[in-house]
Amino acid sequence: MMCLFENSLNIIKYSIYIVPLILMIVLSISIENASKRMNIIFKSIKLTLILIGILILIEESNYVKLNGHLIKNALIELFEIILIGVSYIIITKIETGVNVGNKTKITEESIILMYSSIIGMIISMEAHNLITLFLSLEITSICFYILALNKNSRKLSIEGGLKYYIVGGIASTIILLGIVSIYKSTGSLMYTDILLTVIENEGIDSRIKMGIVLLILGLIIKLGIAPFHGWLIDTYEGTGMLMTFFLTITQKIVTIIVLINMYMSIMIHINMAEINKVLVVLILVTLVVGTVGSLRQQKIIRFVAYSAIVNSALLLIFLVGNNTEELICYSVYYLINYIVGLTVLINIIMGINKNRVGGNMELLGELKNIWLNNPLLGVCFIITLLFLAGLPPFTNFISKLILIIPMIVEGRMYIAMTVLFFTVGVMIYYMNLVKLIIIDKKEQQESGVQKVETYKMKSGGTVITIGVMWMIVSQLFLDEIINIIKIIVAISN
After folding, report:
1. Are 81 and 56 in contact (CB under 8 A)?
2. Considering the domain boundaries, does residue 410 fall inside one?
3. Which residue, 322, 329, 171, 167, is CA-closest to 235?
């Protein structure tokens, strides 16, 4: 009876993945009324995401499917739920923008591509076979290339989308070369078989090591690690704030979980001393590039992009540490805090409408108008900035600190001090944004200058409230949250 229930659950799960996609494609070509067509597609995809989330919660936290090609554990389940939640928020935000008549450049094809990319990302996180991983990553990447253009004819958008396609193609080629190298040495693409080959040979040969290096290189290029970051800035600026939010969050979730899976399944059992040296250099270079780049930005979207680069470097620290399980726990905790902070930040920026000329905020200098028009929203914005900056007493300060402390314990003072130095550099720029909101608005009032714009919050209030509550209340349950994450990582190992 239990086996029958599990088989029925699997049929329902995979039907929910595929049937809505077919239905949305049919709707996109069969309904003539554009408004009605978009409304039905939005409702369909939101309902589908809810059903997928429910199925993820009710099925077993640990399972093996498709002869070991897909393996799910508690950590993957946690981030699948986070991925579904973030995607639901973004779809709702897009739907609101379309319904109120904003200049949201989105089509039904783009929504279908977003859904397809979500399915690809879920498969990528569960993949324990290299060819399954590659194919699912390519499904996601192809959708991302088209979404980066977002039916936008601006030169900047076309340039960014083209750069994303070229760099993404290079990264995929590197990953495929790594897979070929590993297969030639082991004769298998399963994580377990690769590990058994390493254990039986009492070591790792050069081809396996080269394959692992190529896999990591391809993944971190997709993540935007310096010096492979130039495409990311132009792509984000051209694609718009909502798609930037979608690409930033989802790429980080998928890439970090894929790297954690590979690390816990294969790399933790081999000597990675040489690889670690290269990774340390890349992490430090990324911190320098991201911090220096963010200090001279005037556009909000470019600031978000450089901030994403810095956070990518911090999330990769677990790869170069000796106490791997502990560092993975702290990286997961840091990633959750970053997702919450960025979600609130984007919702504030996208939720504000400039009543005189319409549209959203684009320049950092416009932040001073927030306090003039809505002091409560200004307070929420300041809390979010302080949280993302990692200033005490906010939990993001703790999440950065506990990432650095293991490096000090292991005697890698140069890594810890570099991370600390450039983290302080990012804090300075975040504090400059707080200055814009609090001090510059007073100077504007004292000089008698009229308000340039009137800002009205049109959406996102619920998400902002929940996010700010997490930033404040989570400090009271810090030990409990970290212990839960440690348990999840432990049972997933």
Report:
1. yes
2. yes
3. 167
Low-confidence winner among 135-149, 156-170, 373-387 (lowest mean pLDDT) = 373-387
Which uninterrupted H or E stretch holds 63? strand 63-65
| Residues facing 299 on adjacent strands | 363
pTM over 0.90: no
User: Would you say residue 120 lies in a domain?
Assistant: no
CA–CA separation, 167 vs 177, rounded Å? 15
Whether residue 343 contacts residue 335, with contact meaning beta carbons closer than 8 Å, is answered with: no
3-state secondary structure 129-141: EHHHHHHHHHHHH
Range of the domain at 471: 272-493
Residue 94 pLDDT > 70: yes
The domain tally of the chain equals 1
CA 115 to centroid of chain Cα atoms: 16
Closest of 170, 148, 183 to residue 220, by C-alpha: 170
| pLDDT at 353 (0 to 100) | 61
> Residue 322 has what pLDDT?
63
**Sign of the dihedral defined by the CA atoms of residues 435, 339, 223, 352, in that order:** negative
Is the backbone peptide bond immediately before 227 cis, with ω within 30 degrees of 0?
Answer: yes
- Write down the pLDDT at residue 440: 62
Radius of gyration of the chain from its Cα atoms, rounded to whole angstroms:
23
Omega of the bond leading into 375 within 30 degrees of 0 (cis): no
CB neighbour list of residue 482: distance below 8 Å, 6 or more residues apart: 329, 333, 402
Report the amino acid identity of residue 343. Answer: T
- The Cα–Cα gap between 361 and 276 comes to 41
Read off the tokens for 338. 């970053």
128 lies in some domain: no
pLDDT band at 493 (very low <50, low <70, confident <90, very high): confident
* Beta carbons of 148 and 160 less than 8 angstroms apart: yes
| Nearest residue to 127 via CA among 70, 182, 189 | 70
In a domain, 85, yes or no: no
Residue 209's nearest CA partner among 128, 130, 274, 133 is 274
Separation of alpha carbons 301 and 287, rounded Å: 19
Concatenating the DSSP letter of every residue in 255-291 gives HHHHHHHHHHHTGGGS--HHHHHHHHHHHHHHHHHHH
